[in-house]
Amino acid sequence: MNSTAPNRSEQIEIDASARWPVLVFFGYALGWLLVGGVMQLAAAMQLHQPGFLSACEWTTHGRLAPAAQNALVYGWGMNAAFAFGLWLMARLSATTLRHGGWLFVAAKFWNTGVALGVLGILGGYSTSFELLEMPRYVSLLLLTAYALIGVWAVTTFSIRNTENVYASQWYLFGAAFWFPWLYALAQVMLFKAPVRGVLQPVVNAWYAHGLYNLWFVPVALAAAYYFLPKILGKPVANYYLAPLAFWWLAITSAFAGGSRLIGAPVPVWIPTLGIVANMLVVVGVVIVALNLFGTLSGRHAAARNSLTLRFIIISITSFVLAAAMNLALSMRGFAVTAQFTMLDGLRDWLTFYACFSTAMFGAAYFLLPRLTGKEWRSPALVKAHFGATALGVLLMVAGLTYAGWSQGHMLNDAAVPFAAITKAMAPWFALRSAVLALLLVGHVAFLINFIWIACPINSQGTAAAVFRVPPDLSTEAHAPAGHSLKGVGP
Amino acid sequence: MKNGLTLFLGVFATLALSWAGLLLTAHRQIGGLGQFKDPADETLYPQPLSGLADQGRLVYQDLGCVTCHTQQVRHEGFGSDLARKWGERGSYARDYIRDQTVLIGQNRLGPDLRNVGARLGEAKPAEYAEWFYKLLYAPQSVAKGTNMPAHPFLFDVHPVAGRQPSAHALTLPSKFAPGPGLEVVPTARAVALAAYLQSLKDSYDYPTERSRNAPAPHKEAGH
Fold first, then answer.
1. Which of A1, A60, A125, A170 should be substituted to probe chain B, the one whose Cβ sees the most B Cβ atoms within 10 Å?
2. How many structural domains compose chain A?
3. Which of A61, A356, A436, B43 sits a CA distance of 20 to 30 A from A481?
4. Chain B neighbours among A 91-130 (CB < 8 Å)?
5. A184 to chain B nearest CA, in Å?
6. Minimum distance, in Å, between the CA of residue B126 and any CA atom of chain A
7. What is the ipTM of this complex?
8. Would the CB atoms of B31 and A195 count as touching at under 8 Å?
9. Any B CB within 8 A of A140 CB
C-alpha cells in the first residue's frame, strides 16, 4: 500500500478513466430527470385539473404518478448515484476505473430495464407496491445490470492504493451492498414467494424506507463528507465521531421502516420498533451535523462562493429536516393528523429531492468540468438552476407543511365533507404544480449546460462554477487531493 | 476503519439484523394467520373473494387506485375514520388474509375504501354497481366537487342506432352523457372493478381481535 498522496497527474489519469462512464450515466440520469419531471408535473396538475390527460388509460393519474416516481427514482436517482459513486470511489481509492467498457453495457441494461418498467406501469402492468410498481419481468434485468455496476464500485475499493478509508467510502461501500439486498429481498417476499396478508405492507415499508435511507441518503452524505473539506481546504470537524455516526445511522435506519405503519392493521410492535429507531436515528444525525456544519463554521463566505457547496448546504440542511420529519411522523400525536396527507409525501420528497438530488447537482458542478476539461458555458443557466432549486425547495417545504397539516385537520373532522377538503386543497395542489414546474425549468437549464460541456466537438465554455471568482480558481491546485483528505482529516 | 472485510461484515450484519428482526419475526408471528370459524354459524371468516371480484382487484392494481386511496380503517381513538363511517371498527390483520395483494395505501387524496362495499345504504347491489359505474365514467355526476379523474376507457360508447339497446347502459344526466343516440356500456373490466369494490367490507368482528384491540381501562392517576 502506498501512503503518499497521488499527485496531480495521477488524479488527471483517474478522472480520465472515469470520464466516459460518468458522462454516460449522467446523460441517462438527466434524460430521466426531464422525462420523470414532465410526468410528475402532469400528474400533479391532474389533482387540480382532474380532466387533464384523463381520457387516455396510459396517462390516468393512478398510473402516471407512480410511473413518474419510478422514472425519477430508478432513472434519475440511481444513474446519478452510479455516476457520482463510481467517480468518487475511484478518486478516494486512488486508482483508475478499469475496463470501463463493461459499465456501458451495464448502463444500457439498467436503462432498458427502467424504460421497460416505466412503460409497463403506464401500460397497466403495475404491481401497485410503492417503489416496486415496475412489472416483475424487469427486476432481473435491473439486478443483473446493478450487479455489474456494484461490482465495479467494490472492486475499485478493494484495489485501492490508500492506507486509510475515508468516510465517503464507507457510505458508498455500504450503499453498494444495501440496495441489491433490499431490492432482491423485497422482490422475493412480495412477488416470487409472496408473504401473506399485512406482511406485504410491512415488507414494502421496510424496502421503501431502506431505499431512501440506506441508498440515497448514504450517497448524499458521501458527497457532503467529500466536498466540504475538499473545497474549504480544512479537515472535517470532530472526524473521530464519524465512524460512530455511520454505524449508528446504518443500524437504526434499517429498523425505522416500521414507523410508516403507525395505526395500520399490523402487530403494534412493528410501528413501535420503527418509532424507537427513528428516535435513535437522531443521535447519528446530530453527529453528522456536528461533522458537516462544524466543518462549515467560520467558512461561510468561502462556501457561498462555491456552487457545489451551495447545493451541498441545501442537501445537508434537508438531511436534518428529513430526519426531523421522520421523527415527527413517528409521534403518534403528530401522525394522527399528518398521516396520509401531503406531509407524508413531503417526507420522502425531502429525502429524495432536497437531500439526495441537490447533492448530485452539486457534485455534477464539481466533477463534470474536471472530467471534460471545460468550464460551464453559460453562467446565467447555472444561476437559473441554483435559483430554481433553492426557491423550489423552500416553497415546497413551507407550502406542503402548512397544506398537509390543514388537510390532516380536515380529514380528522368528520363534519367536513370530502369535497370540501378537495376544494380547500386545490390552491395547494396548484402551488405544488408551480414548484415542480419551477424545478423543471432549473433541470432544463442544467441539461443545456450539460450538453454543452459533455459534447466532445465543442468549444471551451466560459463560466466557472463559482459565484464570485475567488483569488485562486482551482482549489485543487494546492489543496490536498483525492484520498489525501486524510491529510486534511484528523 | 481500514479493513474492508470488517466494513463488509458490518454492512451485512446491519441489514441482516433488520431483516431478521423485523420481517422474519413478523412472519413468524402472523405469517400463518388463518380464517376464523364462527362458532355460531360455522362459517369461515374472512370469506374469500369471488372470482369476478378477484379480477377486479387486478384492475384496481393496474389503474393504481392505491395512489389516492387507502384500505385501512384506523382504530377508535386514532383519527376519525370511524366517525367518517369508513368502517364499523378498525381493521385487523386477519381481514387481509383473503387478499392476494394487500394495498393498504398511504395517501388519502380520496376516501378510504376498505369498507366501501358496505356503504350500500338502501340501494340494491345492482343499483350500487350502477353508482360505481357512474363514479368511474363521470365522477362529478355522483360525487360533486371530487377531483377523481374520469375513467372513460373502462366503458364502451357506441351509437344505439341499428342495434338493440344494452340492458347495462348507464342512465346519465344529460350534462354527463356522451350525446344523443349514444349509449355508455361498462366493459368487463369495469364490471370486475365494481364487483371488487362491492366486495370490500369487513363486516364480521372477530371475538379474539376485538378483545385484544379493546381500549385499555382508564387507570386511576396517582397512588
1. A60
2. 1
3. A356
4. 121, 124-130
5. 12
6. 25
7. 0.93
8. yes
9. no
pTM for the model stands at: 0.92
- Contact with chain B for residue A375, Cβ under 8 A: no
| Whether B61 and A260 lie within 8 Å, measured CB to CB | no
Query: What residues of chain A, 412 to 451, have a C-beta less than 8 Å from chain B?
Result: 412-414, 418-420, 422-423, 426, 429
Residue A417, domain extent: 8-488
CATH number at residue A360: 1.20.210.10
Inside any domain, residue A3: no
Is residue A27 in a domain? Answer: yes
Nearest to B25 by CA among A271, A270, A180, A206: A270
Locate cell 461501500: which residue?
A: A173
Q: Tens place of pLDDT for every residue, chain B, 223 residues?
A: 668 889 999 999 999 999 999 999 999 999 989 899 998 889 999 999 999 999 999 999 999 999 999 999 999 889 999 999 999 999 999 999 999 999 999 999 999 999 999 887 777 888 899 999 999 999 999 999 999 999 999 999 989 888 888 888 999 988 998 888 899 999 999 999 999 999 999 888 888 888 877 766 666 665 5
Q: Which domains are delineated in chain B? A: 36-203 (1.10.760.10)
